[in-house]
Amino acid sequence: MRLGARLIFALAATGVSGCAMGPLPPAQATLEGIQSIRAAHVAPMRVGAFTPAPGEATQMDRSVSVRAGVQSAPGGSFAKYLGDLLEADLKNAGRFDPTSDLVVSGIVTHTHVDSGLPNGHAALGATFHVTRGGATVLDKALSTNATWDSDFVGAAAIPDAFNHYLGLFEQMVRDLAADPDFRAAAHQP
Fold this sequence. Notes:
Layout: H1 3-16, H2 31-40, E1 46-52, H3 58-62, E2 63-66, E3 69-72, H4 78-92, E4 102-114, E5 119-132, E6 135-149, H5 154-178, H6 180-185
Parallel strand pairs: 1-4
Antiparallel strand pairs: 2-3, 4-5, 5-6
């Protein structure tokens, strides 16, 4: 295939993928997340509100764009998705109690994804708040990121970027469970 024909094919493939991606399923527990929560030996807790940081672009919380692809947030909010993932892992680890006075909530402070060449990049930042009996016992900022080889062809690069981006939310829950300050604040009395 001539170079010009390959370029036209690649551009056409990118254009075909230039639409909204299918809806994502609701947050589901992961084995790694469950194991991280269990290893943390935290007291049963409930999950409070997870919201985007004040002043952050509201659209960023609702959807992300990569090249010509757009992925909507599960349930309409990526911040809420982070809280839902944490709750799913807590439930499946046996550490969720909807009546607990130990509450974890969060604010998503940063979110980014791109599939530039030669490397794609995604980042996620959040501040977690833990209260016990209404008193704040932890305010902790965490961040995580990923870098990967990005494909030139959009039909491959776009879903790959979205997968890496969503993987950061699962990683953030594991990072929280492994954080020594979180473990101390949410310890089993």
